[in-house]
C-alpha cells in the first residue's frame, strides 16, 4: 500500500510540474529545435568525416539516426537526407559548415533548457561555457559516429575471421543490420546519460538517472509503435499535407519523443524530491 501511495505522489508531482512549467510548450520548442539541429549536424558531421577520408560516413550516420525511428516515418526522410548529404561540398572550413555546427549546438541548448526546467534548477554557468559545451557535444557526437562507422565497416571482416577460426561462434554473429540496431540503441542510451549528467545545472548521480532514462526508453518504443500503427491505419497526413507530409510526420514524432524526454527528467526530479522528503521525516 505504501508503495502505491509513493508511486501516486511521484507521478502526481512529475505530471503537475510538467504541466505547470509549460512542459507542453517546451516539448514543442524542443521538437522544432531538434528538427532544425538534425540536418545541420548531419551536414557538419558528414563534411568533417569526408575531410578525414571517411567517405562512406553519410550512409552510416543516417542509419544510426533513423534506425530507431518507425519505418513509416524514417524511410522517406532518410532517403532525402542521404541525397542531401552526398552532394559534394568543397572545402571543410567553409562558413556554411561552421554555421551548421552552430545550428546543431542550438539543439543541445534546447535540451539543456528543457532539463533545467525538469530538474527545477537555475542555470548559473556563463553563456560562453554553455556554448562551448554544446559545441563540444556536437564534435564528440561527430567523432563518435565516425568511430562507429569505421567499426561497422570492419565488423564483417572481423566476423569472417572469427567464424573461420571459431566455428561455434557462427550462429551468434548476427548480421550487419542487427548490429546497426544494437549500436544505434546503445548510442541513444549513452546519449541520454550524457545529456542528463552534464547539460543541466547541478550534479546528479548515475543511479538517480536510471528511472527517468528507463521510462524514456520504454515510452520511446511504445510511443513509436503506437504512432507507426496510427500512420498505417488511420492517418490522413498524405492527403492533407501532400508533399509536406514527411515533414509534418517528423515534427509530430519528434514532439512525442520530446514530451517523453522531458517527462523522464521530471520523473527523476520527483523521485529525488520524494526521497529527500522521506529522509527528512525519518530523521
State the separation between the terminal residues, measured CA to CA: 22 Å
Strand content: under 5%
Topology as a string of helices (H) and strands (E): HHHHHHHHHH
Number of helical elements:
10
Global outline = globular
Mean pLDDT across the residues is 78
Biggest beta-sheet profile: none
Contiguous runs where pLDDT drops below 50 for at least 5 residues:
none
Strand and helix layout:
Layout: H1 2-20, H2 23-51, H3 57-66, H4 71-85, H5 95-118, H6 127-165, H7 176-198, H8 206-233, H9 237-241, H10 245-282
Short structural summary:
With 283 residues, the protein is mainly alpha-helical. It has ten helices and no strands. It is globular.
Report on this structure:
Helices cover 81% and strands 0% of the residues. By secondary structure, the protein is an all-alpha fold. It is globular and about 60 Å long. The mean pLDDT is 78.
Provide keyphrases for this structure.
283 residues; mainly alpha; 81% helix; 0% strand; globular
Amino acid at each position: 500500500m505504501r508503495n502505491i501511495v509513493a508511486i501516486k505522489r511521484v507521478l502526481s508531482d512529475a505530471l503537475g510540474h510538467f504541466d505547470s512549467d509549460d512542459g507542453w510548450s517546451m516539448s514543442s520548442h524542443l521538437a522544432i529545435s531538434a528538427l532544425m539541429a538534425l540536418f545541420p549536424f548531419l551536414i557538419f558531421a558528414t563534411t568533417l568525416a569526408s575531410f578525414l577520408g571517411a567517405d562512406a560516413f553519410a550512409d552510416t550516420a543516417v542509419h544510426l539516426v533513423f534506425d530507431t525511428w518507425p519505418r513509416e516515418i524514417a524511410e522517406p526522410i532518410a532517403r532525402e537526407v542521404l541525397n542531401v548529404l552526398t552532394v559534394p561540398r568543397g572545402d571543410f572550413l567553409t562558413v556554411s559548415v561552421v554555421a551548421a555546427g552552430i545550428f546543431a549546438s542550438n539543439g543541445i541548448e534546447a535540451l539543456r533548457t528543457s532539463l533545467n526546467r525538469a530538474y527545477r534548477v537555475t542555470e548559473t554557468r556563463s553563456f560562453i561555457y554553455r556554448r562551448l559545451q554544446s559545441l563540444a557535444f556536437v564534435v564528440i557526437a561527430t567523432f563518435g559516429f565516425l568511430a562507429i562507422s569505421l567499426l561497422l565497416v570492419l565488423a564483417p571482416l572481423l566476423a569472417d575471421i572469427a567464424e573461420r577460426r571459431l566455428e561455434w561462434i557462427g550462429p551468434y554473429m548476427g548480421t550487419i543490420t542487427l548490429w546497426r540496431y544494437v549500436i544505434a540503441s546503445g548510442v541513444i542510451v549513452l546519449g541520454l546519460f550524457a545529456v542528463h549528467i552534464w547539460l543541466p545545472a547541478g550534479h546528479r548521480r548515475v543511479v538517480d538517472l536510471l528511472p527517468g532514462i528507463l521510462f524514456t526508453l520504454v515510452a520511446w518504443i511504445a510511443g513509436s509503435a503506437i504512432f507507426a500503427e496510427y500512420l498505417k491505419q488511420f492517418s490522413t497526413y498524405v492527403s492533407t499535407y501532400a508533399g509536406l507530409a514527411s515533414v509534418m510526420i517528423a515534427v509530430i514524432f519528434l514532439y512525442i519523443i520530446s514530451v517523453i524526454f522531458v517527462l523522464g527528467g521530471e520523473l527523476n526530479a520527483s523521485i529525488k524530491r520524494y526521497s529527500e522528503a522521506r529522509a527528512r521525516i525519518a530523521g
